[in-house]
Amino acid sequence: MPMIVSAQEAAPAPAEDDINTVVVTGIKKSYLDAVRAKRSNIEITDGISSDGLGRFPDLNVGEALQRVPGVQINREAEGRNATINVRGMPGSYAQTTINGVSFAAPPSLANDQGTPLGAFNSDIFSAFVIQKSPMANAPSGGLSGNVDMQIAPALSRKDGGTFKASYEYNELGKNLAPAFTLGYNKHLSESLAVFGTVAFKKENFRRDTLRFNGYSRLTPTLTGLTNAQFASTYGDYYSASDCPSGSTSFCYSLKNALGLPATGDVTPFLSSATGSKGNTGVYALDAIRQYTRTNEGDLWTASGGIEWKPNDSTKLGIVGYYTDRDLPKTTQHFLINAVWAGAGTMTPSGTPVQTSDGRWLYETVTHDNFPAKISTRQYGQHQKAGGIVANAEWSNEDWKVDGVLALSKGENSSIETELNLQTNSVSGGGTNGISGTITTGFGDLDDFSYTVTPSPQNILFTSGWVWQGASNSINANASDPAGYLQPGGVYYFSLSGSESLAEETVNSAQVNVERFVNFGPIKSIKGGVQLLQNKFESRGFRNMGYGLQMQNITADMVYTPSFVGDFMNGNADITTNWITFDAERFIDAVTPVTPYTASGGGLTTAGFNIQYADGAFADYNYNTQNDVSQAYIQFKFDTDILGHRVRGNFGTRYESTDNKIDSYDVITPFTNSIGSLSNFEWQSIENSYDYWLPSAIFAADITDDLILRGAYYKTYVRPQARQYSPVTRISPSPILNANLSTPSVSIYDTSVRIGNNKLEPYLADSYDLSLEWYNRPGGMVSLAYFKKIITGRVVATSDPAILCPSDGSTWGFGSLSWDGQYCTATSLSTASSIVHVNASGAYNLDKDTTVEGVEFSIQQNFDFLPGFWRNFGGNFNYAYTESKSPDIAPFPGISKHATNAILFYETSKFGVRAVYNYRTDYPLNANGTYTGGARSVKERGQLDLSASYNLTDAITLSLDAYNITDEKRYEYENDERFVRWIDYDGRTFTLSARAVF
Fold first, then answer.
1. 0.85 surpassed by pTM
2. How would you write 817-846 as a 3-class SS string?
3. CA-to-CA distance for 457 and 577, rounded, in angstroms?
4. CA-CA distance, 988 to 264, in Å (whole number)?
5. What is the pLDDT of residues 230-273, one digit of tens each?
6. Which of 515, 311, 314 minimizes the C-alpha distance to 395?
7. For residues 474 and 81, what is the distance between their CA atoms, to the nearest angstrom?
């Protein structure tokens, strides 16, 4: 059997006096099981187990795991995907296993988020163990640790059945969602047993969000003022002289703000007050998104198995699992209003405040004549995974031989169809008549407000739409494959949307042989070999609007949705001047589309024409295959040192990987913004690498109740498949940058997306030390220290040597030069026309990153106290984590402080549990198309409650309540007053009834 499960099976049964009260509801039992498992394991572990009722009283697996020291849930993951960080590091740094074996989970479609644990119903699992110091025989890849989801084998289960029915109530939107679980275990004989569990859950929940997309430094163009008017109104906040070259501060000169050329004379606009209040310029919010996401669908999860023990030496078993999470009706509803240079004006009001980073910021701003937009997006999500783990084991006094065959497959798809309706700004002194006033509240939701006039903000015309993918009577330079315009160009409609599909197959076969010896302290020698094959297939498309049957649309296909009345449960004073598409009706009316034969006529999964020139096609159509050969040897020791028992093991693991990538590559430039399949051809790339991965672990019994553990191990992580595209994509056609151009100099932009087919895995040396005091039955106090030194971490680069190689690489722009801010194609540039090359990509960092921290945990049952107090118990854990990395690549996602406080009261009739979870602020990756610069997530705490009552010995009622304190999630940029994002999920309640038979 896999190592972790075996270790738990080997745990001694508790003595009679370990549990002084007959526990039926099982809260106390779950914590006792976790303590016993931690104590019996040699390696450093933490975990949680089922409460004895076949359940984890949490919304999903990720919510349950955040109760473990060193584990934090990522609440920025939408759709309750429940991805987690282990010891502060992103989810992709952890290895997720089932019964100790690597498997294919639904692949993550987002950067660094790891396994979407929300794709599994926790009712099929028996326990979750975080293996923080994996041994040589454990699967590699768990740089932060291995997360093992355990399904107990058939012979270890008690006979009988379980039926559970639940109803979930989500306060936001007042959505209801039923669920049920049915399980049965049966010993057909003393040596043969079977089990099966099937769980269903209706998913019906909502999230409301305010996105403060960006803040602009004011300029005459943005404010609609002349240079003289602007200098008089805002000159106090701009530097009177040029800012130092290469300055890392926010310094900005009045000359730059006025758009004067380098030789221009700013003197006529200067006054004695210029720069008197600051030199950073003054900022105001330039874009707002009101956003509601409704998630609707079903989650089916099942497990089953059979186990046979024909004699005392032999055991055979199979465990199978399957999960299917289908949310086809997930829909995103946006109101997107923004101002940018040349499209609308901004007029702040009130007095700006200076933030901690030195910038000045207005709280209130009025936008006029801006592009006003609604966007409705069907966003179907489908996650699946299934597999089997077959075990065979034979042992006697001298030998133990076992084999594991694991076959698994995981799939994940995201099918987006985006409908946009926009009223464009009007140039040349005219106006589209739209005005909106925003008060950000400086991050205080109670002070937020937004109003827009007139109403309705947008209009859906039922005729007259002209496609903008080619020149036409409305737009002679049309090159917008998604868009349609009305005559006059003010009213705009577009259909687009990205589709992401990924499929992973992981198959492995392993044989382990252990020889028991008595050679001094060495008690056994164990070795094994494994062959593993991992296949990954990625597909991606971008819809475009060609060929829609626009003559079929009607005015009632847009409407005012109900959620404008209860957005964030009334906690946000949003504009209710918000309409949305009836997406299903609209799409049914405009399809089927006419294929665009000029591009090859390809259609997306949703049935729309493919925009081949979009990066979604070039970046995400490829296959990878890793063929891995592995072997390990480890030595188990058990001895006395100065009268104290010391046990553990040491060994090494060797892994060799042959990697093959087959991907599309661009072979000819796109002639237009649509592109064609003929612009691509398949290419094949092969890589190989191998590593020796030593490990050593010891556990020393300082006293009968005090254990000191120490561990060292080396491991590596392959770059996440969907995070880094293998294709280099070049957009050679220069595009005028109106924001940087001046009357005398035209600035043009080109772009390069650097392919990552040569990225190497990143390695880490990990050190652990843990002191554990088992002060009484069911009680424990532990203190652990860890340190990880990561080499070759994959990061998004900002290194000029990579983004602007002097020889120009093979990009086709000739030699390049870097001036500290921009990369210039020198041979293509003149004094009046400059071409900038904007490159992006990732690489293996050549400097180490260190992550270290301390974890403290105390768990106690108070059954030694008299009367009422004996029924109490609790758990408190705290983790401190910090990272040190080069300034060029800060480590995202780490909260320095995280804690859980758990208190429960339980009798043989009922039990109550309260859990408070808290983590301090943490930084996010500075990427994305509309999320602006580097952001941080504000500190957050959440209180959950759980209660159970036993009607009879066979029937139990339970009530769980989540986010009782009605917390929100906030993001900000440098200073909390630069609020960037507020998420609201509201409270959730689950009522359950369980019967055993």
1. yes
2. EECCCCEEEHHHCCCCEEEEEEEECEEECC
3. 6
4. 61
5. 999 999 999 999 888 765 678 999 998 998 887 889 999 999 99
6. 314
7. 44
